Amino acid sequence: MVLDAATWAKGAGAKTVALVSSVGANPNAFAFYPRVKGEVEEALKALGVPRLLIFRPGLLLGDRSEFRFGEALATPLMRILNFALVGSTARYRAIAANDVARAMVRMSLNDEAAVGKVVVAEGLDFYC
């Protein structure tokens, strides 16, 4: 669905496509979720939009209309552990979905940022 939407957007003249992926996305990953996220990223890169913005957050915090058991367990734990994730592990910090959305809009509206490039923002990169 993501690739179809991006293909349609490119055909309609979109100059920027922004994607919420996941920390650890990798098309060669053993685990299903990071592998699928990585495969989608690679497919979007091959699509050749003028500017591709890929956001790889850790656990997204915020209200959901659906219940996800794993996230319900991980959310309070990550709120406690976030402060301990520093250096190379900082990219795994939980982050508010609203913060990711704001970063996506800010980068998408900046006409001069990363034209002709693929930009991958992970973890604390959302705050730049």
Task: Explain how this protein is built.
There is one protein chain. The protein has 128 residues and is of the alpha/beta class. Helix content is 41%, strand content 16%. The strands form two sheets. Strands 1-2-5 form a three-stranded parallel beta sheet, with helices on both faces. It has a two-stranded parallel ribbon with strand order 3-4. Helix 2 links the parallel strand 1 and strand 2. Helix 1 packs parallel to helix 2. The two termini are 29 Å apart. The model has no long low-confidence stretch (mean pLDDT 81).
Q: What keywords describe this structure?
A:
single chain; alpha/beta; 4 helices
- Radius of gyration (CA) equals 15 Å
Mean pLDDT: 81
Rough shape?
A: globular
What is the N-to-C order of secondary-structure elements (H for helix, E for strand)? HEHEEHEHE
Q: What distance separates the N and C termini?
A: 29 Å
Discrete helix count? 4
Low-confidence stretches: none
How many E strands? 5
Q: Which structural category fits the helices and strands?
A: alpha/beta
Sequence of strands across the biggest β-sheet: 1-2-5
Helix content: 40-55%
Amount of beta strand? 15-25%
Biggest sheet overview: 3 strands, parallel
